[in-house]
Design goal:
Blueprint lengths: L2 H16 L4 H8 L3 H8 L7 H11 L3 H6 L7 H8 L4 H17 L3
């Protein structure tokens, strides 16, 4: 099978585990069968753009990440939405909290 599908399958499996989804849960969220998901994760089968989009939405990533592994940020959209909830004065506190969490290793 094409290297693109092999690497994409690996990323899909990693993201499924990161999101704590079973194969059955992710397949249901993406609208595909469990067997098809297994074959995708193993790099044994390709997928359509529709399937790619369903998987990306279920895994909360951009299609580019699945296809190319671009590490722009797996959660960039979520982080931007949360950050937008704060006003400028709150941002100072937010940055301090995030730095403290990082330094404490609480993640």
């Amino acid at each position: 099978m094409n290297d693109l599908y092999v690497h994409a399958g690996e990323r899909i499996k990693e993201l499924r585990i990161l999101n704590k989804y079973t194969g059955e849960e992710l397949a249901a969220k993406a609208g595909i069968s469990v067997k098809f998901l297994y074959n995708i994760e193993q790099g044994k089968q390709g997928f359509s753009s529709e399937t790619l989009l369903g998987l990306a939405e279920a895994l909360h990533v951009k299609c580019d990440y699945i296809l190319k592994g671009s590490k722009e940020s797996v959660y960039s959209n979520e982080l931007i939405e949360v950050i937008d909830m704060f006003d400028e004065s709150q941002m100072i506190t937010l940055v301090k909290v995030l730095k403290a969490v990082y330094e404490m290793g609480v993640y």
